[in-house]
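The protein record passed on for reference:
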Amino acid sequence: MPHDITVYVKAAEDGHSRGDCPFCQKVCMWLQLKGIEHTETFINMKDKPDWFMDMAPAGLVPVVKVDDKVVADSEAIIDYLEKHTPAEPDLTCTDVSMDVCKDIMSVFKEYYFNEEANKESKKKVAFDRVMVELHEYLDSIQHPWLSADHPTRADCALIPKLYHALTVLENAKKYKIPPDAPEAQAYVTRAFKLPEFKGTAYPKEVILHSWAQKHKQQTHNHHHDGHHKH
């Protein structure tokens, strides 16, 4: 059993609190569900410290240091921790549960960044389909969570993405989960009440601020490209 686990996560703009990284939250949720003691260290992604770059040359978070072993990438981190921490509680999941809503972030971005009125309903329908996919999957397995009667690794991966997408779309597009996806709505309600979600989350304002900046950048690039075409 490792003695010393540190998770390096994205810092919010104040540098001292948790930033809005769904992959960092995935790892922290997994550790909390496992009941494994760990330390979180916040990394300012706009001004990464030299010691962090020396330790993790790719400069991406999350990174976990387990005793003297450094592991990057959220999936690789959980793979490593599964091998080196107690088997119970068992958070392993079925392969199929890891594939549920795997397009959620790309479909969300397409919808959120869309500036063309004639494409808006098509982009919304695509995101609705992701919610219906979640509904149909949950309806077919008869479990409250993606792979079991308790949250597993699959839930740790999906819930932070749902938090981002639904927070932003609700704010920007007044989006609501469609009525033909009641199991998806019930899952989201359950998920956002989960103590391990609440204990690793960041305020909605942090998500909205971060995506608003990305939107501004996207719009700027789009207009910039437009100038080159003329």
About this structure: The CA atoms of residues 43 and 49 lie 8 Å apart.
